[in-house]
Amino acid sequence: MKKFLPGIFLGLLIFSSAAGQTFSDSNLPIVVINTDNNSAIVDYPRVFGEMRIIRRGGNERNYLSDKNNPAYLNYEGRISIEIRGSSSQYTDKKQYGFTTLMADNLTNNNIELLGMPAENDWILNSMTFDPATLRDYLTYNLSIKIGEYASRTAYCEVVINGDYKGLYLLQEKIKADDHRVNVKRIETIDNSYPDLTGGYITKADKTTGGDPVAWSMISRNYATIDFIHVLPKPEDVTFPQNDYIRNQFRRLDATALSGNTSLVSGFPSIIDIPSFLDYMIISELSSNADSYTYSTFYHKDRNGKLRAGPIWDNDLTYGNDLFFWGYDRSKPDVWQFSNGDNEGPAYWYNLFNNATFECYLSKRWNELIHPGNPLNPDSIKAFIDRTVVEINEAAVRNNMRWYQVVDFPYEAEEVKKFIDTRIRWITANLGPWSQCSEEPLPRLVISRIMYHPKPTLEFRDADKLEFLELTNNDSQPADLTGIYFGGTGLVFQFPPNSTVGPHESIYLAGDIATFRMKYGVNPFGQFTRNLSDKGEDLVLVDGFGNVIDNVTYSDTIPWPEADGNGSYLKLTNITSDNNEASNWTASNDIILSEPDINNENGLKVFPNPVSDHLYVRHNSPIVSVSLHDLSGKIIRQEYVNALQAELNMASLPTGVYFLKVFTATGSYTKKVIKDQK
Fold this sequence. Notes:
The protein is of the alpha+beta class. It has four domains: 8-172, no CATH class; 195-427, no CATH class; 444-587, Immunoglobulin-like (Sandwich); 604-674, Sandwich (Immunoglobulin-like), CATH 2.60.40. Helices cover 18% and strands 28% of the residues. A seven-stranded mixed β-barrel has the order 4-5-7-8-11-13-12. It has a six-stranded mixed beta sheet with strand order 25-24-20-19-28-29, with no helix packed on it. Strand 31 and strand 32 form a beta hairpin. Helix 2 (239-258) packs parallel to helix 4 (346-352) and helix 3 packs across helix 5 (355-368). The longest helix has 26 residues, at 377-402. It is elongated and about 95 Å long. 43% of the residues are buried.
């Protein structure tokens, strides 16, 4: 790896402009910014201007002369813009933050830019300290490929006030948004439970920009790590909110130090382990010299667990560092959380040295580097090769402008070599993962999804009608302790020591009272946030992130039509693959199965409606059960003398039946719905 030494004179970075260079067209999108009155862009305050993004689409070239042709403009409108960054402010090639605005210069304009979801806060990343101009792009995309959110990106070339500024990376700013960090926005009035629990975005970082330090923690080598509020904003955070989120980190620190792996009181009860594993994997794969201490983000949704990420600021990676300031820390053969420099809070080291956590880290790592998976070295190198082809032309122009990329192809090859060495070293230095390779998991199945209810005169707030059904497809009770929905979006964690009986179903509702009024059944609990009307990935996991069930539903074909028409998705057979759209049907039946919580005098009848086997339980011996049609005729009768009975109803026509149960302590009659398979 060459030591990058870009134009240093007397300790200052001075990038010279190539005299006479002209720029007219590119294979990349072209961003043209003209500030009002040609005002200089400064760190503060922001200045206003016009921005146009030229993109013809496909493989067509983009021409600067098309800046006045609406047919080829991805964006044309107002912005406010400022210089951003910390160390990069010392360079001539600046980074910029900008907001897309309406014509009034006041109202934010949420809009898609270069295929990225609509928003208004964006960044033009200059990649100043990266001689390969691909480290951020590579690392963000790797994080996305392994299933975590990272800033979406698009290469472009930038012209400001007629001055060609070079190759940039247009990317999303980290903020709370359904398509970015998907947490509920906390307000200043949210100071008591459960509203106090989220959502938060917090970062460990330098205190540039005047943001105050919210609290500090100590690393193993006694360095101070400062934490800063992102959501809520530092000026808006209340004392209860600051205390709450700070205590989450303190609890993590204490439980990681003690090695407490309890699902009730240990670190698995506090953090979303998969996100911490993925953050550590990306940070260590890239050997990020800043990770854990600087640009290290965390987020926590309302009623949810503390999650690590998204990753940010990945230029000092893959062997690159601020060599001109005497730093050389991104090595292929060190752990960045224990390298004696930017180690971050001690909980990172303590988590790694916990046998259970390290087992899952090793398991996840070895899955991701397997051939065909995102972190396999061949997959990464192929991605780099495609990126080099995409930006090679612009990199030449960028080097003429700033002398930033001395030997672009060489630098890209050096990144590939580093990754090969790094992957071999990590693989050799992670412990075995056989002890956590096949954890026994409950056979819980997501069996009904009401994701887009239809409002009615009685129930005008349709979101409150949302629900999920979970079925225990096992002959044994399922312990629900530690089980929760992973990822972001819908939030629900099962309380400790809760269970669901064999072959029983339970409901999670968008609103308990509304669900009870609508369906006449008590749900098990109430989830936070709403199910997506468009579709989302529902991942049910145990306390260590092992996937119990996973359904990615959609409101489009081939999924059944259950989008706002009063129907819900219903799994046709509990044993079928519920990730296959063909195994679901759209149902508008308002009679749902009674969960375990809804029983009378110790009697439990489930599932109801029933498609094949009906189970009857009582806390005293059952003498007999009999099934009657609406005329009173006996259809089935069983003599039992046990606490549980079973009726095979698979061959019966659909319809309503009455079940009579005779026990040692009394008799009961219950309506049963026979459903189709």
